[in-house]
């Protein structure tokens, strides 16, 4: 609503205001500095004579100047267009087992893939005495501090199924008929 009101005032009498601005006399330009008036002085015969006169001293100095140019050496670029890392990262093969088709095959040392993370969290949850933080760190080439943080803050989901007796108990109850 407010946009409509402001648009009405903004567009009010636009053509007349535009004609008034166009019909105003143009402001006079600021006076130029007298050194900027070299064009008027170029017409004088003394300046033309000075420009056309050859100076022998400058000509001999100019003849002594020798310029030699060479093209920079051509560098061969790799055709792949990929930027190779400055240092090679050590990689390890993943330990995926039956989920091998779902994830990457090689992972940099000190990191794990998603499937490996879920696997090690589940192993630790099911058998915490066997899969300790030290064993996980050694098995997956991780730091012990990071493994402890991972085990503390990330917990895999647990699927719970309710016993069928409770379903029967709920379905055996017949709703009352209203009469």
From TrEMBL:
Subunit structure: Binds calmodulin. Interacts with NDUFAF3.
Gene that encodes the chain: Ndufaf4
Gene Ontology biological-process entries: mitochondrial respiratory chain complex I assembly
GO cellular component labels: mitochondrion
Name of the protein described by the UniProt record: NADH dehydrogenase [ubiquinone] 1 alpha subcomplex assembly factor 4
UniProt record similarity statement: Belongs to the NDUFAF4 family.
Pfam family, one: UPF0240
